[in-house]
C-alpha cells in the first residue's frame, strides 16, 4: 500500500474512533455519579490521540531507519518494505483504537492526557528550532575543520590576498589559490560602515520626527509607508543599486572628474543603508516612545523647546536602546547578501576607498558555492569557514545588542 | 528679561498686603476634541499667595492649571479660548513665545519626574538651556541656592553628582521643585505635588510651599481638603468644568455660599 491511501485509512480510523469514543463516553458519563466529568468530545479526542500517535511514532522510526546506515544491516528488500510498513502502522493504529475505547469510563483522566499531549507538542516545537540552530553550527564547524586541514589558519585570518581558484588538475597552471580573508572582511566593514552612515542618521531622525513632531494623523499614514521599505525583497534593492544608483554615482563621478566604478562600494553601501532605514527607525521609534511622557513634560515645563528636550532628555534616556538598535542593524548589514552580489561585484580589493569595487564575505560565499563544485576542495570548504566567522560575528553583535536593550528596558518598567 | 523679573520682584517685596492679581483669566473655555472640559472659567490669582484648586476628579482643575503655562499646547486636539492675562498680557495672543512663558511660569507635576541625570544636572538643566549662568561658578551658585530653597541641600550636599532618580520619592519631588526654582519663575504651578508622597514627605513639601510664597505665586491643585486648608490663602472649587466658588480659603471652608461646595468639603460627594 502506498503512502496516501495509508494516510486516508488512518484518518478514517481516527474519525470512526472519535465517533465511537464520544458515543460510548456519553453513556458512561450519564451513568456516572461524579458531579463533573470530561465532556464527550474530549473522550473522542482521547481516542483519536491513541489512534494517531502510535502509528506516527512507529512510522517516523521506520523512516529514520531507512535513511540511516541501520538499513543496510537489516537488509530488508523493497518488496518486504512495501508490505511490512503499512501493516505495522495499521496494527499500531488499530491497537491504540481498541485499547483506548476499552478504557473509556467516567473515571478516566481524559483531560490530563490531552493536556499532556499539548505540552509535548509545544516542547517539541521549541526543541526542533533549537536543534536546527545547533545543527547549522555543527555542520559549519565540521566543514571548517576540514578547511583548516587544507589551509593553515594563519593564512586564512592574516592573509592579504583572496583568490580561491585552485587547480582542478595537476597540470593546470597559475591557480594555486590564496585564502587570505582580510580583504573580504575589510570589504564587508567598508560597505557596512557606508550603510550605517546612511541608515543611522536617516532612521534616527525620522524616528524622532515620527515620535515627537508628527501629528497623530500624519504618523498613522507615513509610518506604515516607511515600513513598506522593509517589505521590499532585497533582490529588488539589488538591481536598484546595480542599475540605478551605481550608474548614477558613476555619472556624477564623470561629471566632476572623479573615477567611480559602476560597481562601487559606495552604491552598494548606500542602497543597503536605505534597506536598513526602516529597521533602525522602527526600533528607535519604539524605544523613544518608551521614554515616559513625564520626562517630556518636566522638560517643557522648564521652558525647553522640543529640540532641546529631544537633545537633552529624550536621546540620553533612549541612548542605550538606540545603541542596541544600531548594533542589530549592523548585524543585519553584515549578513546582507543580495544587494552586494548585484551591486558590488566579486573583486577582492584591499582598499578603504568607497569609490572602488570591493567584495564582502557573503558575496564570496555565494561565489564559492555557485556552479559545479566538489565538496572536498579547499575552495568550497572556504565558504564554510567564512560562514562560521560571519555567524560568530553577527551572533556576538546580536547578543550584545539584546543585552544593551534589555538593560535599558529594566529602567522604566 | 529675567533680570527685569528679579527687579520687579524686589520692588514688590514690601507691599504684599495690597491684593494684586498676577494672573487674570476671563471666560476660559478648553476643548479636548469635542469634549468641553472647561466652561467659561473666570478666576484671578493673587500675587505671592498660595491659591488652591480643589474639586472632584475630572472637574477640569488640572486642565485649567495647564492652561496657565500653555502646557496644553503639547496635547493634540486641545483648544483654549478666552483670555488669560499674565501681568496684564494675554499669554495666548499670537507672537507670545510659549517656551519663554514656561520659564516664567514653572510647573511641578503629580509624579516626581527627575531626569535620569545627576542631581546637579537636574537642577542645572533650566539655567543651562536659558543661559542664566555666565560661568561654572554662577551655575554652581544657582544650583546650590535652588536646592537650599527647596530644602534639599542638606540631604544631598555630599552626593550632588549621583543620580537624581536614586533619591526617595519625597526628595525627588523637592528636587523637581528645586529644578523649577532654578529657572527663577514668578509663578509655580503644582499639580497634586504630594499625591505620590507619604505623610512625612508631604509635610516637608507643604512646609516648603509655605516658605516659597514669600517670593513666588503658587497655584496648587490638590485632592486633599486638609492640604488646601493648611497651605492656601485662596481656594477655588471646580465642579464639572466650572468654578463654583472662589475666595479666601477660610471663608470657602467655614461658610461656603454654594451648597455643592458645602457638599464637597464635608465629604458628601466627590
What would you note in describing this structure?
The complex is a heterodimer of chains A (413) and B (270). Chain A has helices at residues 3-31, 40-67, 70-74, 78-103, 110-150, 153-158, 182-213, 216-231, 234-256, 265-289, 293-301, 306-335, 338-343, 361-369, 378-412, and strands at 162-163, 178-179. Chain A has 413 residues and is mainly α. In chain A, strands 1-2 form a two-stranded antiparallel sheet. The mean pLDDT of chain A is 85. By secondary structure, chain B is α/β, with parallel strands linked by helices. Chain B has a domain at 21-112 and 187-266: P-loop containing nucleotide triphosphate hydrolases (Rossmann fold). Chain B has 11 helices and 10 strands. In chain B, the strands form 2 sheets. Chain B has a 6-stranded mixed sheet with strand order 6-7-8-3-9-10, with helices on both faces. In chain B, helix 4 crosses helix 5. Chain B starts with a helix and ends in a 5-residue tail after the last helix. The relative contact order of chain B is 0.17. Residues 1-17 of chain B have low confidence and may be disordered. The A-B interface holds A 215-216, 292, 294-305, 308, 312-313, 316-317, 411 and B 69, 71, 74, 76, 99-104, 106-109, 111, 113-117, 125-126, 129-130, 176, 179-180, 183. Chain A: The chain crosses the membrane at residues 6-22, 43-63, 83-101, 117-142, 184-208, 228-249, 255-280, 313-334, 381-405. Chain A: It is a multi-pass membrane protein. Chain A: InterPro entries: MetI-like, MetI-like_sf, Phosphate_PstC, PstC_N. Chain A: This is Phosphate transport system permease protein. Chain A: Part of the binding-protein-dependent transport system for phosphate; probably responsible for the translocation of the substrate across the membrane.
Amino acid at each position: 500500500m502506498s503512502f496516501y491511501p495509508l494516510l486516508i485509512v488512518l484518518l478514517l480510523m481516527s474519525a470512526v474512533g472519535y465517533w465511537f469514543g464520544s458515543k460510548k463516553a456519553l453513556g458512561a458519563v450519564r451513568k456516572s455519579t461524579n458531579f463533573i466529568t470530561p465532556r464527550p468530545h474530549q473522550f473522542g479526542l482521547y481516542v483519536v490521540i491513541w489512534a494517531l500517535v502510535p502509528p506516527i511514532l512507529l512510522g517516523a522510526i521506520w523512516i529514520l531507519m531507512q535513511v540511516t546506515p541501520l538499513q543496510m544491516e537489516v537488509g530488508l528488500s523493497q518488496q518486504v518494505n512495501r508490505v511490512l510498513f503499512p501493516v505495522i502502522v495499521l496494527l499500531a493504529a488499530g491497537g491504540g483504537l481498541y485499547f483506548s475505547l476499552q478504557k473509556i469510563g467516567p473515571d478516566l483522566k481524559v483531560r490530563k492526557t490531552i493536556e499532556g499531549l499539548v505540552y509535548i507538542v509545544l516542547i517539541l516545537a521549541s526543541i526542533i528550532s533549537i536543534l536546527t540552530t545547533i545543527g547549522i553550527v555543527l555542520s559549519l564547524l565540521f566543514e571548517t575543520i576540514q578547511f583548516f586541514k587544507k589551509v593553515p589558519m594563519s593564512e586564512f585570518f592574516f592573509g592579504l590576498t583572496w583568490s580561491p581558484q585552485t587547480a582542478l588538475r595537476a597540470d593546470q597552471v597559475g591557480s594555486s589559490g590564496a585564502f587570505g580573508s582580510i580583504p573580504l572582511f575589510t570589504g564587508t566593514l567598508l560597505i557596512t560602515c557606508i550603510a550605517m552612515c546612511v541608515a543611522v542618521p536617516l532612521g534616527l531622525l525620522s524616528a524622532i520626527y515620527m515620535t515627537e513632531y508628527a501629528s497623530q494623523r500624519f504618523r498613522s499614514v507615513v509610518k506604515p509607508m516607511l515600513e513598506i521599505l522593509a517589505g521590499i525583497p532585497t533582490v529588488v534593492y539589488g538591481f536598484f543599486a546595480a542599475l540605478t544608483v551605481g550608474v548614477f554615482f558613476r555619472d556624477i563621478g564623470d561629471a566632476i572628474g572623479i573615477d567611480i566604478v559602476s560597481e562601487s562600494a559606495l552604491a552598494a553601501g548606500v542602497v543597503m543603508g536605505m534597506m536598513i532605514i526602516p529597521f533602525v527607525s522602527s526600533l528607535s521609534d519604539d524605544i523613544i516612545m518608551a521614554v515616559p511622557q513625564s520626562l517630556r513634560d518636566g522638560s517643557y515645563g522648564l521652558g525647553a523647546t522640543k529640540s532641546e528636550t529631544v537633545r537633552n532628555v529624550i536621546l540620553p534616556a533612549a541612548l542605550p536602546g538606540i545603541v542596541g538598535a544600531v548594533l542589530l542593524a549592523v548585524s543585519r548589514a553584515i549578513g546582507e547578501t543580495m544587494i552586494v552580489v548585484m551591486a558590488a561585484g566579486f573583486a577582492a580589493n584591499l582598499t578603504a576607498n568607497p569609490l572602488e569595487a570591493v567584495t564582502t564575505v557573503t558575496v564570496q560565499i555565494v561565489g564559492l558555492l555557485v556552479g559545479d563544485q566538489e565538496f572536498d576542495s579547499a575552495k568550497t570548504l572556504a565558504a564554510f569557514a567564512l560562514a562560521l566567522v560571519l555567524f560568530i560575528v553577527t551572533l556576538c553583535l546580536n547578543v550584545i545588542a539584546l543585552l544593551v536593550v534589555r538593560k535599558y528596558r529594566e529602567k522604566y518598567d | 528679561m529675567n533680570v527685569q523679573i528679579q527687579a520687579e520682584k524686589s520692588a514688590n517685596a514690601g507691599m504684599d498686603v495690597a491684593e494684586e492679581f498676577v494672573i487674570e483669566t476671563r471666560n476660559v473655555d478648553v476643548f479636548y476634541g469635542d469634549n468641553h472640559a472647561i466652561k467659561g472659567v473666570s478666576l484671578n490669582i493673587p500675587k505671592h499667595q498660595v491659591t488652591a484648586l480643589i474639586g472632584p476628579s475630572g472637574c477640569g482643575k488640572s486642565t485649567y492649571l495647564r492652561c496657565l503655562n500653555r502646557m496644553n499646547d503639547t496635547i493634540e486636539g486641545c483648544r483654549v479660548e478666552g483670555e488669560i492675562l499674565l501681568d496684564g498680557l494675554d499669554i495666548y495672543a499670537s507672537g507670545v513665545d510659549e517656551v519663554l512663558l514656561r520659564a516664567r511660569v514653572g510647573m511641578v507635576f503629580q509624579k516626581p519626574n527627575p531626569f535620569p541625570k545627576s542631581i546637579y544636572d537636574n537642577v542645572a538643566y533650566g539655567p543651562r538651556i536659558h543661559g542664566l549662568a555666565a560661568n561654572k561658578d554662577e551655575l554652581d551658585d544657582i544650583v546650590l541656592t535652588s536646592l537650599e530653597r527647596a530644602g534639599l541641600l542638606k540631604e544631598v550636599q555630599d552626593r550632588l553628582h549621583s543620580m537624581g532618580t536614586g533619591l526617595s520619592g519625597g526628595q525627588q519631588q523637592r528636587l523637581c521643585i528645586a529644578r523649577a526654582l532654578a529657572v527663577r519663575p514668578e509663578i509655580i504651578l503644582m499639580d497634586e505635588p504630594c499625591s505620590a508622597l507619604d505623610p512625612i514627605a508631604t509635610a516637608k513639601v507643604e512646609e516648603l510651599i509655605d516658605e516659597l510664597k514669600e517670593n513666588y505665586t503658587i497655584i496648587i491643585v490638590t485632592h486633599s481638603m486638609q492640604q488646601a486648608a493648611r497651605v492656601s490663602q485662596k481656594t477655588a472649587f471646580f465642579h464639572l468644568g466650572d468654578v463654583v466658588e472662589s475666595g479666601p480659603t477660610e471663608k470657602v471652608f467655614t461658610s461656603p455660599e454654594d451648597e455643592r461646595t458645602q457638599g464637597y468639603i464635608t465629604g458628601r460627594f466627590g
